[in-house]
Write a structure and sequence with these properties.
The protein is α/β, with parallel strands linked by helices. It contains eight helices and twelve strands. Helix content is about 30%, strand content about 20%. It has a seven-stranded mixed beta sheet, sandwiched between helices. It has a three-stranded antiparallel beta sheet with strand order 3-9-10. A two-stranded antiparallel ribbon has the order 1-2. Helix 4 links the parallel strand 4 and strand 5.
Length: about 300
């Protein structure tokens, strides 16, 4: 699981020198001192909104999460845990939601596992889980947590657009903010997930709610203003001085997700929009009690492979 980071402001400066006046997106946190170090290491100087290839997305996001893994876990590791399944910053846990059903004896693929606390939680409940991620640094954290907990989760480094597993290998697949927002070929990702699932297998994934893309990345009152178009799918791209992508994220509408899922032979059974829990005061970038009381921050899609 790799829950999102989020920007503090849509117009905040990247690396303290170049004004980000092109707009950011709702799941990056590049303004805090910790995450700024990754940007400095990668030479990030500005934000672009432009098309990107799959190869650009893979290279940029692999480098980004490798550079940010230490600071990310220093900031969010306690919330994520080492053997816990948290779907979203609202704090919805699989233990309470039961979106995957009974996992005992089931073979499960976690797509974009990060340090793999979800996969370890699944193993503790009798599943045979595999964690897949693009970032070698994230997988190092996963391997260290495997050793620390004694919960052995096989870990695979790969691009989710081309899953290195045989057809029909898994009963379930899941993703908590991993991989889905970062791939260029959404149709290809869902087709691959459907391929590795057995008939009737479930695919459940959480992403930043698409409506969040129209608002500034601000947990306060400024984050309640509409400043962008919901229908603008142009990728958010951070670049270095030579224009090379250092981070890429993709926006899709609810309709885009539904069409990609059905096109891959997956049936959408439910969409969960977690409400902000009473008494939950934690801010996670642009996730906050103020915004959470007014509109959703997370969408969880629950799907099943058709027979």
């Amino acid at each position: 699981m790799r829950l999102p980071a989020a920007t503090a402001s849509r117009n905040a400066a990247i690396t303290g020198s170049v004004q980000n006046d092109l707009g950011s997106h709702p799941s990056r946190e590049h303004q805090s001192g910790r995450h700024a170090r990754a940007e400095q290491a990668l030479g990030t100087v500005r934000v672009d909104r432009r098309p990107v290839t799959s190869a650009e997305s893979v290279a940029a996001n692999s480098a980004w999460w490798d550079a940010d893994a230490d600071d990310y876990h220093a900031e969010h590791g306690e919330f994520l845990g080492v053997a816990d399944f948290v779907w979203c910053p609202e704090g919805l846990r699989e233990a309470d939601a039961g979106l995957l059903g009974d996992v005992a004896g089931r073979r499960v693929l976690e797509v974009g596992c990060g340090s793999a606390p979800c996969a370890r939680w699944l193993v503790e409940r009798g599943a045979s889980a595999v964690g897949l991620d693009l970032s070698a640094a994230m997988l190092r954290y996963a391997a260290a947590a495997n050793e620390a907990t004694g919960i052995a989760v096989p870990l695979v480094r790969a691009n989710a657009e081309r899953l290195p597993f045989a057809t029909g290998s898994f009963d379930l697949a899941c993703s908590a903010f991993g991989a889905v927002p970062f791939v260029t070929d959404l149709d290809g990702l869902f087709t691959e997930v459907a391929r590795v699932l057995r008939p009737g297998g479930r695919w459940v994934f959480a992403v930043t709610h698409p409506i969040r893309w129209i608002f500034p990345d601000d947990p306060g009152p400024d984050g309640l203003r509409v400043t962008g178009s919901y229908f603008d799918r142009t990728p958010y791209v951070e670049v270095d001085g030579a224009g090379r992508a250092t981070y890429v994220e993709h926006h899709r509408t609810i309709g885009d997700f539904v069409r990609a899922l059905t096109g891959a032979g997956l049936r959408l059974e439910d969409v969960i929009e977690p409400e902000w829990p009473e008494g939950h005061t934690r801010e996670w970038g642009q996730w906050s009690p103020l915004r959470g009381a007014l509109f959703p921050g997370t969408a969880i899609f629950c799907c099943r492979k058709l027979s």
